[in-house]
Amino acid sequence: MSAVSTSYSTQAFRCNPSESMDEVELKNIQLSFPSPRTLTRGPGLATEDRIETKFGTILIGIQGDRSKPAILTYHDIGLNYVSNFQAFFNFVDMRLLLQNFCVYHVNAPGQEEGAATLSDAYIFPTMDQLAEQILEVVSHYGLKRIVGFGVGAGANILCRFALSYPDKVDALCVLNCLSTQTGWIEWGYQKLNARTLRSKGAMTQGVLDYLMWHHFGNMNEERNHDLTHVYRQYFESQVNPTNLGMFIDSYIRRTDLDITRELDPMRKKDVRTIQMSVLNVTGALSPHVDDTVTFNGRLDPVNSTWMKIQDCGMVLEEQPAKLSEAFRLFLQGQGYGMRVF
Q1: If 88 and its partner were Cys, which of 143, 235, 274, 316 is the partner (CB 3.0–4.6 Å)?
Q2: Is residue 293 scored above 90 in pLDDT?
Q3: CB contact at 8 A, 230 and 37
Q4: Residue of 177, 180, 209 whose CA lies nearest to 193
Q5: How is the beta sheet containing 56-64 ordered, strand by strand?
């Protein structure tokens, strides 16, 4: 038995030395490298429509089965539906959720990829008028009710729409939402940025630094430098400066949402408040944390939730798993999406 075993062992380990070295050195393995991350539109992301509204033409990206319940998104300043939402809605957990939803991505006028420069004669809509455009989008597609999903300026616009048309909105998920009008420091800095963008027609270092701070907060060595590099390059080369200047100018001219938290059941019906459920989200490293706390203090605690996600400033990019889980549970609480979880 031992002789057979020894013979088998000798044959098993007898091999061609050159073949052995090829396997050890991995000479036969082809190296492959991941594609560089971009913020441009990927293949098959969404179908696109252009809709004429009384405030100008806007681009709508549609992702999913139109017979499903609707999620309507609105992006932040410096971004569009692709750069703001493409990565998040293609995240694996969100792909499962989208089996039960159709997403309508709304772009502010002139903010889409490759947009032509808006005419000097064009009057960019106010924040309230941008909210009115949403009504035209909802009517165009025959949507009875939507779930709003907005970031920054887009979150503020969706809140205005929800306040004006509460019968059209089932729920809101908003990130870094400001409910107040512009403070003096923000107004002065943003006004300078908007004027620079429109007059020079080019991205300046000051505006670039502001956009990076607006989306990521203060940077440190522990942040994802590859991600921030991608966004910095995007702002430098892919954004139409003149059109962005118009959007920023509209954003800094925003009015207060004029909402009030009223705990007395007898008086609730007499105050202006967001009536539907609200998931109010921010990142721990975001510069807008205090603004979201202020917003939370003006919401009805019965139907609102404030959530601060750790280790991120730009939640959609830096913590998509945590946000997708929170959004999933939020929708479950509204009676949505029960089949896929």
Answers
A1: 316
A2: yes
A3: yes
A4: 209
A5: 47-53, 56-64, 102-106, 70-74, 146-151, 169-175, 277-283, 304-309
Amino acid, res. 51:
I
Distance CA(196)–CA(221), nearest Å, equals 30
Indicate the burial class of 283 (C-beta count within 10 angstroms; 0-12, 13-18, 19 or more): buried
Return the percentage of the chain with pLDDT > 90, whole number. Answer: 65
- C-alpha 50/C-alpha 32 separation (Å) is 39
pLDDT digits (tens, 9 = 90+) for 145-157: 999 999 999 999 9
pLDDT (average), residues 306-325: 95
Reading the block at residue 90, the tokens are 């293609």
Task: Name the helix (H) or strand (E) containing 57.
Answer: strand 56-64
Nearest Cα to 288, choosing from 320, 261, 263, 251? 251
**Residue tagged 């979150």 (tokens):** 155
DSSP 114: T
Judge contact between 57 and 51, C-beta under 8 A: yes
Q: What integer pLDDT is reported at residue 38 of this predicted model? A: 64
pTM of the model: 0.86
Q: Angle, to 10 degrees, between the axis of helix 127-140 and the axis of helix 153-164?
A: 70
Would you say 157 and 130 are in contact if contact means Cβ atoms under 8 Å apart? yes
Q: Where are the alpha helices (DSSP H) in the chain?
A: 2-12, 17-25, 81-89, 92-97, 127-140, 153-164, 184-200, 205-216, 225-237, 241-252, 289-297, 315-318, 320-333
- φ, ψ at 299 (rounded to 5°): -95, 160
Q: How far apart are CA 47 and CA 71, in angstroms?
A: 15
51, pLDDT greater than 80: yes
pLDDT in the model for residue 79: 96
- Write the DSSP symbol of residue 183: P
> How many Cα atoms within 13 Å fall on the side-chain side of residue 269?
2
pLDDT in tens, 79-95: 999 999 999 998 988 88
Residue 74 DSSP SS3: strand
Q: What are phi and psi of 175, to 5 degrees?
A: -115, 130
Structure tokens, 141: 């597609």
